[in-house]
Amino acid sequence: MARKLIENPNECPITHSMNIIGNKWTSIIVYMLANRKLRFGELAIRIDKISRKVLANQLKEMELRGIVIRESYAEIPPRVEYSLTEKGERLLPILNQLCAWSKDIELDMTAEKTN
Amino acid sequence: MARKLIENPNECPITHSMNIIGNKWTSIIVYMLANRKLRFGELAIRIDKISRKVLANQLKEMELRGIVIRESYAEIPPRVEYSLTEKGERLLPILNQLCAWSKDIELDMTAEKTN
DNA sequence: CATATTAGTTACCTTTTGGTTACTACTTTC
DNA sequence: GAAAGTAGTAACCAAAAGGTAACTAATATG
C-alpha cells in the first residue's frame, strides 16, 4: 500500500526533476495555488477531472517535497488549506516558460504514436 | 498497436507541456543531444538503461513534435543520426532551470509515498 | 434521530508506460 | 559460406499511474 519514496541523491538532476513534476497533476496543482490558499475540496472542484484519491496523494507528496504547505484546522466539518511554499512559488516562472515554449510547437498532431 | 496522438489545441498549456516532456526519457534525450549529433546506437549506449524500443518510440514522437531531426543515410550497415531542432535547443535553458530548482529541494527523502 | 458537511481512505480495476527477447534486412569481411 | 554490424520492429509482459465507488469520523442543524 505505501510505497517508499527513496530517492537517490546522485541521481541525474533531470531525472530527479521529472520525478517531481513529470506527472499528470503536480504542475497543475502548483498553478492552481499560485497566489492563493485553497481548501482540499476547492482544489478538487477547480482541477477538472482529478480524482480525490490522486489529489490527496499528490498533495501529500508535494508536502513532503516542500512544495506545498498543508494547514489543518480542528473544526467540524474539517478545514484543510493548501498553499505554495517559497519553493513552490519558484517553480511558477519555470512552468510559464515551459508553457510558452510548448505553445509554439505548431504541428500536425493527427500523426501516430506507437509507444 | 498504434495509438493516435491527437492533441486538443485548447488543452491547458501546462498539460500540453507535460504531455511532451513529462515522461521518463524525453528530456534526457534532449540533454544528450545538446550541441551534438548522435547515432541511434550511441544514444542507446549513453542513456543508461533505456530500452531500444522505447528509445525508438521516443525519438519518433520527438521528431513529430519538431524537437529532433532524424537523418538517415543509405549505407550498409545503416546510419541514422539525430540532432536537436531549434525548438529542441530552446528547451535546454528551461530544463537547466528545472534542474537548478530541483536541486535545492533538500529533504528527508526516506519518507513515504502512497500513490 | 436523521441529514448535511469535509477531508480524506480503502479496495478494486483500467490504462498507460516501459522493459525483454527474438527477429529482420543488407552488405562487408573473414 | 558464416559472422559482424546497424537500426530498428513485433509479440509479449510487468509495473506504475490513475480512476471509481463506497465508506469513515465528528459535530451542527432541523
Summarize the structure.
Two copies of one chain form a homodimer. Chain A is of the alpha+beta class and 115 residues long.
Largest interface: A-B, 53 and 53 residues
The fold-level CATH name of the domain at 23-100 in chain A is Arc Repressor Mutant, subunit A
Please identify the oligomeric state.
Answer: homodimer
- What is the CATH architecture assignment of the domain at 23-100 in chain A? Orthogonal Bundle
Q: Number of DSSP helices of chain A?
A: 5
| Coarse morphology of chain A | globular
- Beta-strand content of chain A: 15-25%
Query: Overall mean pLDDT score of chain A?
Result: 88
Q: Gyration radius of chain A, to the nearest Å?
A: 16 Å
Terminal Cα span of chain A: 28 Å
Notes on the protein architecture:
- 2 copies of one chain form a homodimer.
- Chain A has 115 residues and is of the alpha+beta class.
- Chain A has a domain at 23-100: Winged helix-like DNA-binding domain superfamily/Winged helix DNA-binding domain (Arc Repressor Mutant, subunit A, Orthogonal Bundle).
- Chain A is built from 5 helices and 5 strands; from the N terminus they run βααβααββαβ.
- Chain A has helices at residues 13-21, 26-32, 40-46, 52-64, 86-103; strands at residues 3-4, 38-39, 68-73, 79-84, 112-113.
- Chain A has a 3-stranded antiparallel β-sheet with strand order 2-4-3.
- In chain A, strand 3 (68-73) and strand 4 form a beta hairpin.
- The first copy, chain A, is globular, with a radius of gyration of 16 Å.
- The model of chain A is unreliable at 107-114 (pLDDT under 50).
- Chains A and B meet through strand 1, helix 1, helix 2, helix 4 and helix 5 of A and strand 1, helix 1, helix 2, helix 4 and helix 5 of B.
- Strand 1 of chain A pairs antiparallel with strand 5 of chain B.
- Chain A binds a DNA duplex (30 and 30 nucleotides) through helix 3 and helix 4.
